[in-house]
Amino acid sequence: MQEATGPGRAGDEPCDAASSPLQAEMRARVIALAFGGDVQRFEEFVDVLRSALPPGTGAVIRGSAVSGFRHEDGAPFDADGPGTSDLDLSLTGDKVRECFTVTGFYVPWVHSIPLSDEHPKVAPPLVPLRERLTGIAGRPVNIQSTRDFVTQLRGDVLGQPYLVLLEHHEPS
């Protein structure tokens, strides 16, 4: 996989919180905002993802948990009260994309509709994972499938930062 650069990444370095100051800053913000400062809950969230997803699946958090503000109106994360802002999780990889129904895509096999309270049937195999992640986070977790180039486009061109939780690499 070609490494992304731009707002979601720090230059050509691998996107690892230990080697990327930008990723470390976003990780700290996500932990503070979405997990109430509880590093252990955040790590449990990532561990559950890692164990539940097909090998090589990538995962990023984007949106207000990363930026600190809602895109629509600039309101701060959880402006409507604790636990009211959701987590936007984007997954990459062929196997996880297969979890979404044919009608569950904005752009077929490229960018899905998020599995959410609004669209609970777009990815039936991921419903138990979503429920578990929502329980850990204490807030709704929306799960979307997207191609790597869409993540890069949104980060590099549109300036939408993202925190990498799991690197995407197809198993050989």
In short:
This protein has 172 residues and is α+β, with helices and mostly antiparallel strands. The protein is 33% helix and 15% strand. Helix 2 runs antiparallel to helix 5.
Q: What would the keywords be for this entry?
A:
single chain; 172 residues; alpha+beta; 6 helices; globular; disordered N terminus
User: What is the subunit organization of this protein?
Assistant: single chain
As for the number of domains, it is 1
Secondary structure: helix percent: 25-40%
Number of strands: 6
Number of helices: 6
Order of helices and strands: HHEHEHEEHEHE
Based on Cα principal axes, name the global outline. Answer: globular
Q: How is the largest sheet built, in terms of strand order?
A: 5-2-1-6
Strand content: 15-25%
Q: Compute the CA-based radius of gyration.
A: 15 Å
Kindly report how far apart the N and C termini lie.
12 Å
Which stretches are low in confidence, meaning pLDDT under 50 for 5 or more residues running? Answer: 1-18
Average pLDDT score: 83
What profile does the largest beta sheet have?
4 strands, mixed
Structural class: alpha+beta
